[in-house]
Amino acid sequence: MPKAGHLPVGPSAPTPHSERLLAPDLARGMMLLLIALAHSRMLHAGGLSFTAPAGGGAVDVAVQWLLTSLVDGRSAPLFGLLFGYGLVQMTRRHSGDPAQGRRLIRRRGLWLVVFGAAHVVLLYSGDVIGAYGAFALVLAGVVSWSGRRLWWVSVTALVLGTAATTALQLVAGSDAPLAVGATLLDSALLRTTVLPCCRSPPCPWSPRP
């Protein structure tokens, strides 16, 4: 019999607080702080781009050096590790029924895609929530792969991903202005164009220049 106030771990119950690990939550909090610092440069340009401030005094230069050296791009790898850690933990909770674990991961991934799309349309075009959801939908069964298969797929994805990212940066640049229109509705429509379903062909409701 479980102790009073101690919920059983299962498909319909969250992990009890007494069994939660503090380290992942602290790591997420620290990475969210880094993300906030990385986006602080938007205040310099009125919230329209990520362009690094040019010139300025010694303090401005020092702050920009610290952001570039210690903040920019530093949170993405750990968030990726924490995402994979979450998939493994959900799978372990359903070790007796792996299919149920995969269904849970895909259901949560679908909701992440939904929330990510809403985030893009309503607030910010640089959303990553939907991307995590898409990965969950596609990679729900990866945690049960053999170590050798994981290594081959990881190395291949690293090589192809690095090549694709480099090509995109060379073609599009890294400091593109954010989607901001004359009104809230115009801005929402502009942000909608970054959704995968609106890339090719363009959305018929996309604002014209």
From TrEMBL:
**Highest taxon of source:** Bacteria
Keyword DNA damage attributed: no
Keyword Lipoprotein appears in the UniProt entry:
no
Kindly state which keywords UniProt assigns to this record, in alphabetical order: Membrane, Transmembrane, Transmembrane helix
TM segments?
A: 62-88, 109-138, 150-171
PANTHER family named in the record: INNER MEMBRANE PROTEIN
Q: What is this protein called?
A: DUF418 domain-containing protein
